[in-house]
TrEMBL record:
Belongs to the peptidase M14 family. One of its GO terms (cellular component) is extracellular space. This is Peptidase M14 domain-containing protein. Keywords: Glycoprotein. GO terms for biological process: peptide metabolic process; protein processing. It comes from Hymenochirus boettgeri. GO terms for molecular function: DNA-binding transcription repressor activity, RNA polymerase II-specific; metallocarboxypeptidase activity; RNA polymerase II transcription regulatory region sequence-specific DNA binding; zinc ion binding. Residues 1-301 form the Peptidase M14 domain.
Length: 514
């Protein structure tokens, strides 16, 4: 089953999310016991994690004042003064710097970016709560999640960090393509509402994040209303109830961006209401307003594709990379080889890669109904693992290759090959052209240097060279190549029909797709 999480109480004075998760726990348990088919299916097919209080120290401070005497700052931070939501590693800067240098995905991956060493050092300003959350994220292969906050009524989706955009003049496009682009923009406005691109920090899964955000706001009873949807006179969500985090409130090191770049989980923030600390009398109404939206958002974890990646013996392959064509963000398989990838409806070209196996590609379709499409993969082993073992054994030295099935080279054949090698080297040295020296002053002359340099070949030897004249004293004749991790094939060219030769061990090198 896919892993889903709801978290609340990142800020101790935003208590509505905490109370809603406690009510959601009671509702799910009661309805499951009563046989509600929707809840039964949700519980059996999903691993649901609910954490109502991520900042208990801040909540204790805020609860002492209560809803009447509390304010917007009291209990917002941890006891040590950290804002947990913005206390995560800044991986956006790492990724964007690598993209500018064209290092992604060859040198720097587009997913599961490692945490910088400076963040994990003893002198780093990291809250204990943040470290515990990161360890929890890395332990469980979450697919979808949301953190419940307060003070506004909307859904905010990544990226939360603003990205500097280089101003470049777009290339001139043909007139028919310009008209086509205008028609597509009009269709997009009619389907999902207009979005002002100014200030928006788009992620590779921008369209998927908008779909997920709308799934909550549209099921919420008041979030999508133009009259009561916003907490301010200026409704910057344009009646949709969703907004890009960087456009609304640019922040770095947020929980949403870190979850997206370090794990498989798509995370967003749900702001439940204008009042951070509502009165107890209002909880029943707030539950009815948010109940359907909370359940509908959990069900979105079953949208897209899912499957298992195994080898030909049926053994699961962990940490295999799942790539979607046209989406520059990959995910990895879990320890038992299964994976989930949330996608919008459509057809996708899915490619799976794993170290030591040849890659595999399929076309997978995603429908509009809830229920992920099964897309399993079976990978064949390649000999790249053996090649890497040889490289590790040889170090930086050359690796000897010989034709498969060859036999040991005889002494006379070895001498003939050495002789041919020496003749080729001599011919190459004699063909080197020496240019006349240049002078500082020009002197006219009617005599021109010859256009070609005469070539003198050494006399052909009829008798074989003596053992003292040989170039190598090895038992076998070898060709050397330096093997690097590139997707190519190494071919060995033998210029004469001499007898095949071999070394002590013969390797057939076939670089498959890896």
């Amino acid at each position: 089953e896919p892993e889903f999480r709801y978290t609340a109480g990142l800020h101790g004075n935003e208590v509505l999310g905490r109370e809603l998760l406690l009510l959601l726990m009671q509702f799910i348990c009661k309805e499951f016991r009563d046989g509600n088919p929707r809840i039964t299916s949700l519980v059996r097919d999903t691993r649901i994690h609910l954490v109502p209080s991520m900042n208990p120290d801040g909540y204790e401070i805020a609860s002492q004042m209560g809803s009447e005497l509390g304010n917007w700052a009291l209990g917002h931070w941890t006891e040590e003064g950290y804002d947990i939501f913005t206390n995560f590693p800044d991986l956006n800067t790492v990724l964007w710097a690598a993209e500018e240098r064209k290092w992604v995905p060859h040198r720097v991956p587009n997913h599961h970016l490692p945490i910088p060493d400076s963040y994990m050092s003893e002198d780093a300003t990291v809250a204990m709560e943040t470290k515990a959350i990161i360890a929890w994220m890395e332990k469980n292969p979450f697919v979808l999640g949301a953190n419940l906050q307060g003070g506004e009524k909307l859904v905010s989706y990544p990226y939360d960090m603003a990205r500097a955009v280089k101003e470049e003049s777009p290339p001139e496009r043909p007139r028919y393509q310009q008209h086509q682009d205008e028609e597509e923009e009009e269709e997009e406005v009619l389907e999902v509402g207009a979005e002002d691109e100014e200030g928006v920090s788009r992620s590779p899964d921008h369209g998927i994040f908008r779909w997920l955000a709308i799934s909550y706001s549209s099921a919420h009873l008041t979030m999508g209303e133009t009259t009561r949807g916003s907490c301010h006179a200026d409704d910057f969500t344009k009646g949709m109830g969703i907004v890009n985090g960087a456009k609304w409130r640019p922040q770095s090191g947020t929980m949403n961006d870190f979850s997206y770049l370090h794990t498989n989980c798509l995370e967003m923030s749900i702001y439940l209401g204008c009042d951070k600390y509502p009165h107890e009398n209002e909880l029943a109404e707030e539950w009815e307003i948010n109940k359907e939206a909370l359940l509908s958002f959990i069900e979105q974890v079953h949208r897209g594709i899912k499957g298992i990646v195994t080898d030909r013996e049926g053994e699961p392959i962990a940490n295999a990379t799942i790539s979607i064509s046209e989406i520059n963000h990959d995910v990895k398989t879990a320890s038992n080889g299964d994976y989930w990838r949330i996608l919008n409806p459509g057809e996708y070209r899915v490619t799976v890669r794993a170290e030591g196996y040849t890659q595999s590609t399929k076309i997978c379709s995603v429908g509009y109904d809830i229920g992920a499409t099964h897309c399993n993969f079976v990978l064949a082993r390649s000999n790249w693992r053996r090649i890497k073992e040889i490289i590790a054994m040889k170090g930086n030295g050359p690796i000897r290759f010989a034709p498969a099935g060859g036999r040991r080279l005889s002494p006379s054949a070895r001498q003939r090959m050495q002789q041919r090698r020496q003749m080729w080297l001599n011919r190459r040295a004699n063909l080197t052209t020496t240019l006349p020296p240049t002078t500082s002053s020009f002197v006219p002359s009617t005599t021109f240097p010859p256009t070609e340099t005469p070539t003198t070949l050494p006399p052909r030897r009829l008798e074989p060279p003596t053992p003292s004249e040989t170039l190598w004293d090895t038992e076998t004749e070898t060709y050397t190549e330096i093997v690097t991790e590139v997707e190519t094939e190494i071919w060995e060219e033998v210029s004469t029909p001499a007898a095949p030769f071999t070394t002590g061990e013969t390797y057939t090198v076939n670089f498959g797709d890896f």
